[in-house]
Amino acid sequence: MMLRRGFILFLPRLVGLLVVACCSMSIVYMLACTPKGDNQQLALPRVHSPTVKEGYEAILQEREEQHRNYIISLKKQIAQLKAELQGRTEQLKNMQNQYPDPLDIQLDHSKPEKAQANLLAFLRSQVDKAEVHSGVKLSTEYAAVPFESFTLQKVYQLETGLTRHPEEKPVRKDKRDELIEVIELAVGSLNKPDGVSKAKPRVYTASDFVEGIYRTEKNKGTLYELTFKGDAKHQFKKIVLFRPFGPVMKVKNENVNMADTLINVIVPLAKRASKFRQFMQNFREMGIQQDGRIHLTVVYFGKEQMNEVKSILENTSKSANFKNFTFIQLNEEFSRGKGLDVGARFWKGNNVVLFFCDVDIYFTAEFLNSCRLNTQPGKKVFYPVLFSQYNPSIIYGHHDSIPSLEQQLIIKKETGFWRDFGFGMTCQYRSDFINIGGFDLDIKGWGGEDVHLYRKYLHSNLMVIRTPVRGLFHLWHEKQCLDELTPEQYKMCMQSKAMNEASHGQLGMLVFKQEIETHLHRQKLSSKKT
């Protein structure tokens, strides 16, 4: 009787435990069936709902609807992916039909040696198709793929966008690893024994690296040209590497001796004697004292301020013992193209590198070496992208005084910009300039003649080296756009004038100066009241 009574007392508890266990199992089942990514929590039946059973039926119906919607969404995504995949497949087929592979590469894994040979043949064909050994004819100036330059510490880049800077450390890991790999491969190539010389070879290190330039043709690969210090002064080692969608391949390893390579700097000028005095200070320090393999040709238009310009030139000649200069005077209206053309054709010596320059340009001795290294008669012309200085009175307006010129020549976003729309400063051999036909002498005044010459080179088979350089600066000066200019020339002049003043942020501070001052005044009054 006692056992029976105890069992009867325990039975309600057992039923309650079974009900709790069943509910727990139902909840676990519904949680396990919930699709991933669904952030909605499981809605438990409330205490005041009609019955527990009806509450769970409602939950199950809700969950069933959610699963049904989830499946429909997945089906839509799968259909979209299939359509996109089909579209990409069609694009790939069209490209293969349009550009059939001349080597018909088939990587037969049963014959690994043949597959490797086919792959190597394909990679070498990429070198031949890319603009490595010679230039290709281009339709417009916008079709040229520019180079970017780099040293061990910095990358000098054209495509800065809104967040990148014209000069910065290669912070992106892929870019940093890429450039380190290229420099290491170049050093290894230089240290590889040639098997001919019995003398103890020099050991090259990364510290011998001077500078490099690179550009990527996205359907072919990346071309690298690296310059190292040579065995003597004015001698260099140049390594050309190419990455054809795979391993880097050595293209060329050559000695480059620039000890006897003369540069003829040609400057067209009219008036502007004070600017010419500043130019000659730079020319004396960098061209005469540091470089020493340089000639200066000044083509002067008119007679106003001519004696002052000649006096500056003669004084520099006497004080620096410099005799390598030519002064040509033309009694006609100023034409930059005419001045450069006359100066280039006046030269009677051996083939020489011509550097077309303006009086408001500042260059370094390192740039003169870049000018030599990136020109080659019958093969290459050099179109450097110079760094254009903003108006110092705006940049340093909040300072006590404007720094010296040398202290202003800093490549930063706040101090200037890469003048990638300008083609006036250029280096080429005189023979290439004469063969291409020189300048269009019908163009008068400011602008247009440089673009015309640039297009001539692009339309030829010469390789155009276009890269930002860290040693060439356009000094700020107030620009006057004359009424005599043609509408196109006047528009170009005004665009150049607007870009020369300051960065967007600095110009914005000037535009909203009154608004900013009003805000600061209100803040000052508010702080006094509190």
TrEMBL record:
Q: Name one GO cellular component term.
A: Golgi cisterna membrane
Q: Which family does it belong to?
A: Belongs to the chondroitin N-acetylgalactosaminyltransferase family.
Location comes to: Golgi apparatus, Golgi stack membrane
Instruction: Give the organism the record lists.
Output: Peucedramus taeniatus (Olive warbler)
User: InterPro entries, per this entry?
Assistant: Chond_GalNAc, CS_glycosyltransferase, Nucleotide-diphossugar_trans
Q: What is this protein called?
A: Hexosyltransferase
> Reaction(s) catalyzed by this protein?
3-O-(beta-D-GlcA-(1->3)-beta-D-Gal-(1->3)-beta-D-Gal-(1->4)-beta-D-Xyl)-L-seryl-[protein] + UDP-N-acetyl-alpha-D-galactosamine = 3-O-(beta-D-GalNAc-(1->4)-beta-D-GlcA-(1->3)-beta-D-Gal-(1->3)-beta-D-Gal-(1->4)-beta-D-Xyl)-L-seryl-[protein] + UDP + H(+)
Q: Which PANTHER family match?
A: CHONDROITIN SULFATE N-ACETYLGALACTOSAMINYLTRANSFERASE 1, CHONDROITIN SYNTHASE
Where would you find the membrane-spanning parts of this chain? 7-32
Q: Which domain of life is it from?
A: Eukaryota
Q: Which membrane topology describes this protein?
A: Single-pass type II membrane protein
- The EC number(s) this enzyme carries: 2.4.1.-
